[in-house]
């Protein structure tokens, strides 16, 4: 049973988060340090030029439209059959529709009209951001969770043959695993057990994606967002808890002080001289803090009677 408890503010935050992710992805795609496949395309152009030039030079004496078309066909055929793959890339080659081999990296050849490439697979570590929107916790609180998935393909054959679209399958599997993990925890435990959730997701995703030839390296939760109304309630609850703790500490301090006063009273009761010495100390402190002016009851002067002090009265 699924509940739709998201507020308008949470929808707006989700939209803003999605826009931020899109901007970050676009920025990442434009970074100059990212490796490109420009060399592959340049090699294909060179192969086309070589094939076209050889045939065109051989048939230049009988120059006609047919010879030009033959030269173009030779260039296209040469570019299609002689290819190159970057170091991080593997190419799945099919022969008459059946899996034949995994080619690359480097130079590889295709039999014309018999072999063709099914998919180019990147063997580098991939980073994919995903989110679980309005995921319900164990206490039925809707939260929006953003996370990053680090994964890589280690078997190009399985990634090509076992699943239709392996990047989409990995992301959907990650979203499902995230919702299952959140549904087993209360909202109070969600932030405290973030690292544990990361490890559990990595284990679940690793077991599921292993059959696709994919390894999940890690899952990291970036942000956990709750509705604004619930944020206010949690803030008030935290404030009330801190105020209660402060009052409890104050009461414990008062209790300790009262016990010390009781002990002091027992000492004063057993030894009157201690009480007189305390009175003299209080008078001295009062005179010092009051800049030489002392306002005290007349009975306080009895504390300065030295004869009574030594007589123990």
Automatic annotation (TrEMBL):
InterPro entries referenced in this protein's UniProt entry, alphabetically: Band-7_stomatin-like (IPR043202), Band_7 (IPR001107), Band_7/SPFH_dom_sf (IPR036013), Stomatin_HflK_fam (IPR001972)
Region of interest (Disordered), residue spans: 1-29
Domain Band: from-to ranges: 80-238
Origin: domain of life: Bacteria
SMART domains the record matches: PHB (SM00244)
Pfam families with a match to the protein in the record: Band_7
Keywords (A to Z) from UniProt: Membrane, Transmembrane, Transmembrane helix
Transmembrane segment boundaries: 40-60, 66-85
Family the entry assigns: Belongs to the band 7/mec-2 family.
Name assigned to this protein: SPFH domain-containing protein
């Amino acid at each position: 049973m699924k509940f739709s408890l998201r507020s308008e503010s949470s929808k707006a935050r989700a939209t803003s988060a999605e826009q931020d992710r899109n901007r970050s992805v676009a920025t990442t795609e434009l970074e100059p340090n990212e490796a490109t496949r420009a060399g592959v395309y340049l090699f294909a152009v060179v192969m086309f030029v070589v094939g076209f030039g050889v045939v065109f030079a051989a048939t230049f004496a009988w120059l006609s439209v047919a010879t030009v078309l033959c030269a173009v066909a030779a260039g296209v055929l040469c570019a299609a059959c002689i290819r190159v793959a970057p170091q991080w890339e593997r190419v799945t080659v099919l022969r008459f529709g059946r899996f034949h081999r995994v080619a690359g990296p480097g130079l590889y050849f295709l039999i014309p009209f018999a072999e063709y490439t099914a998919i180019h697979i990147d063997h580098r570590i991939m980073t994919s951001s995903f989110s679980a929107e309005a995921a319900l916790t164990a206490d039925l609180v809707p939260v929006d969770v953003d996370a990053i998935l680090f994964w890589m393909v280690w078997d190009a054959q399985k990634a090509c043959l076992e699943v239709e679209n392996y990047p989409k399958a990995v992301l959907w599997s990650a979203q499902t695993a995230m919702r299952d993990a959140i549904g087993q925890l209360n909202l109070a435990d969600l932030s405290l057990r973030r690292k544990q959730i990361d490890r559990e997701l990595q284990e679940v995703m690793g077991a599921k994606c292993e059959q696709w030839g994919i390894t999940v390296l890690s899952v990291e939760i970036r942000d956990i967002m709750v509705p604004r109304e619930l944020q206010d309630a949690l803030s008030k609850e935290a404030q009330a808890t801190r105020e209660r703790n402060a009052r409890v500490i104050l009461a414990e301090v008062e209790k300790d002080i009262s016990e010390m006063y009781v002990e002091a009273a027992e000492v004063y009761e057993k030894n009157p001289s201690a009480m007189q010495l305390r009175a003299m100390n209080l008078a001295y402190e009062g005179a010092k803090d009051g800049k030489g002016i002392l306002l005290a009851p007349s009975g306080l002067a009895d504390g300065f009677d030295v004869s009574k002090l030594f007589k123990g009265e």
